């Protein structure tokens, strides 16, 4: 166990070594910054793609169009029945009258459509039920359950078939992105460990005499390793700060534009795609873990006895 | 204090120590002599726990080194001071800092360090050079600084591996005089050397090592390479 004198000495020595070897410290910090920038960009891409897909998924539903002969009571009873299904998130009913009103409101500025509608005696629009499922993959089953004989007399059309290819493609894209993201993070973590390990090996090699003397005069392994760990944490801290400065323009300029393009009318920050603070914390934790692992590996051979 | 019991040590297929038996008592001054590669440095490395023995036992104050746990090895090393031919000083630190550094890593408090370092530096005759860097000192001064560092954690045993190897006659004499002074103050000293003149001059116990074996032990010895 380290006593308090040794603990404060380790912290102090770590800081002093960081400043005294500022050139090597800068190099190590830069290497870590490059790694973190790659991580941050990957993270942003992953989060943005994920968000885009979730947004697109949210616009997908199954629309059930009813025959004009179907009574509102019958439609509402089908709605209640559907709401019992655990795979269904929400069912919205739009009566034929509401559908016409919505249509008129939407095309209020188009005199040709308004005039055409006025010339019609009957409401051409049917009553509809919009069904949203909990999961993307449940849509085909829900659509199939509506093709039941019991509903034949009321339902004129189920529009799910139009969106089926889109849903299937989205599912494939999403699973590809998740797999690719995991592979990239693992590969970059290994590369980062190797690069940081080499940089730290250089730092430790540079001070091997100091390490040797410490060992010979009876310093414990924890005491010898301690200042290097403190230094590695300092590299992580400064690398995180620099990375945040580099990626913040992406947050403040580019990301909102992409988010608006994907889903007009929303703001990235208001919608909490993710918090910048969480990203900073994640970057620091990632770099701290990587650098501490690398320090332990790099100094191991100097502490063999 | 130190006991080697039938110690055998191999480096690959080559036998570095071949059945070494040795008994060193508290307060002794021993000159361990022999040609390069005779096994002197290996004996020191075993005492410091840097190398393990292949057969036999090495005891320090009754403790078998091979049974000391890895995490307790630093505590054993704090009882031993080591001086090297190449001194192993930190060039970027002053004489004062080279000594205080060794005390810091051993966990001495700031007060003790501030009190002890000037004392140790004056024992080795470097009181006036506390703020000098190693590069600003002569070979003899550097070696005396290395001895000061080895003494800083108050060891009961001082191992000096060819400390005069790189020094001229005058400086070598000064370093030897210093080692004798440390011995008079109560520290057991083992000096590994092949400097015939020095060993013959001090008239202390001489142990001669050849091809990994102890070939002669003389209470008031003379180093005679030809007869060994």
From TrEMBL, chain A:
It is found in: Cell membrane. Its main location: membrane. It is a multi-pass membrane protein. Keywords: Cell cycle, Cell division, Cell membrane, Membrane, Transmembrane, Transmembrane helix. Pfam families: FtsX, FtsX_ECD. Residues 182-303 form the ABC3 transporter permease C-terminal domain. GO terms for biological process: cell division. Residues 61-148 form the FtsX extracellular domain. GO terms for cellular component: plasma membrane. The chain crosses the membrane at residues 22-48, 173-197, 232-255, 276-299. Belongs to the ABC-4 integral membrane protein family. FtsX subfamily. PANTHER family: CELL DIVISION PROTEIN FTSX. This is Cell division protein FtsX. It comes from Candidatus Doudnabacteria bacterium CG10_big_fil_rev_8_21_14_0_10_42_18.
From TrEMBL, chain B:
Residues 2-228 form the ABC transporter domain. SMART domains: AAA. One of its GO terms (biological process) is cell division. InterPro entries: AAA+_ATPase (IPR003593), ABC_transporter-like_ATP-bd (IPR003439), ABC_transporter-like_CS (IPR017871), ABC_transpr_LolD-like (IPR015854), P-loop_NTPase (IPR027417). GO terms for molecular function: ATP binding; ATP hydrolysis activity; transmembrane transporter activity. It comes from the Bacteria. Gene3D superfamilies: P-loop containing nucleotide triphosphate hydrolases (3.40.50.300). One of its GO terms (cellular component) is plasma membrane. PANTHER family: CELL DIVISION ATP-BINDING PROTEIN FTSE (PTHR24220:SF470), IMPORT ATP-BINDING PROTEIN (PTHR24220). Belongs to the ABC transporter superfamily. This is Cell division ATP-binding protein FtsE. It comes from Candidatus Doudnabacteria bacterium CG10_big_fil_rev_8_21_14_0_10_42_18.
């Amino acid at each position: 166990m380290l006593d308090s004198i040794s603990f404060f000495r380790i912290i102090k020595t770590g800081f002093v070594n960081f400043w005294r070897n500022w050139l090597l410290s800068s190099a190590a910090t830069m290497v870590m910054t490059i790694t973190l920038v790659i991580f941050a960009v990957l993270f942003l891409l992953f989060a943005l793609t994920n968000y885009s897909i979730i947004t697109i998924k949210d616009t997908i539903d199954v629309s059930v169009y009813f025959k004009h002969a179907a009574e509102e009571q019958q439609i509402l009873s089908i709605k209640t029945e559907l709401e019992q299904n655990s795979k269904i998130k929400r069912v919205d009913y739009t009566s034929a009258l509401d559908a016409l009103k919505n249509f008129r409101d939407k095309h209020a500025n188009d005199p040709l459509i308004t005039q055409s509608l006025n010339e019609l005696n009957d409401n051409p629009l049917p009553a509809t039920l919009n069904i949203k499922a909990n999961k993307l993959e449940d849509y085909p089953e829900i659509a199939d359950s509506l093709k039941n004989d019991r509903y034949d007399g009321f339902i004129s059309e189920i529009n799910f078939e139009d969106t089926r290819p889109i849903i299937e493609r989205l599912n494939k894209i999403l699973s590809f992105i998740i797999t690719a993201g995991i592979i990239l993070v693992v590969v970059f973590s290994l590369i980062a460990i190797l690069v940081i390990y080499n940089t730290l090996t250089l730092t430790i090699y540079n001070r091997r005499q100091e390490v040797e003397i410490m060992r010979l005069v009876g310093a414990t392994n924890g005491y010898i390793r301690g200042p290097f760990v403190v230094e590695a944490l300092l590299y992580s801290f400064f690398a995180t700060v620099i990375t945040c400065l580099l990626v913040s323009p992406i947050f403040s300029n580019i990301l909102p534009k992409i988010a608006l393009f994907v889903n007009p009318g929303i703001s990235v920050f208001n919608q909490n795609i993710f918090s910048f603070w969480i990203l900073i914390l994640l970057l620091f934790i990632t770099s701290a873990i990587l650098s501490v692992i690398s320090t332990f590996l790099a100094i191991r051979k100097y502490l063999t006895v | 204090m130190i006991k080697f019991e039938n110690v055998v040590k191999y480096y690959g297929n080559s036998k570095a120590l071949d059945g070494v038996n040795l008994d060193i008592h508290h307060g002794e001054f021993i000159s361990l002599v022999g040609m390069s590669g005779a096994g002197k440095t290996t004996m020191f490395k075993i005492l410091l726990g840097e190398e393990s023995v292949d057969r036999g036992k090495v005891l320090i104050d009754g403790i078998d080194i091979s049974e000391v746990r890895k995490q307790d090895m630093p505590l054993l090393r704090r009882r031993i001071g080591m001086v090297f031919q190449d001194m192993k000083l930190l060039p970027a630190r002053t004489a004062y800092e080279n000594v205080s550094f060794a005390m810091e890593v051993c966990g001495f408090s700031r007060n003790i360090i501030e009190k002890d370092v000037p004392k140790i530096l004056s024992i080795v005759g470097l009181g006036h050079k506390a703020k000098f860097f190693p590069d600003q000192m002569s070979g003899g001064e550097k070696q005396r600084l290395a001895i000061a560092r080895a003494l800083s954690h108050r060891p009961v045993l001082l191992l000096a591996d060819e400390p005069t190897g790189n020094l001229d006659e005058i400086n070598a004499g000064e370093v030897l005089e210093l080692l004798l002074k440390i011995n008079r103050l109560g520290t057991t000293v083992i000096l590994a050397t092949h400097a015939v003149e020095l060993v013959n001059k001090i008239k202390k116990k001489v142990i001669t090592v050849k091809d990994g074996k102890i070939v002669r032990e003389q209470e008031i010895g003379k180093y005679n390479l030809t007869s060994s």
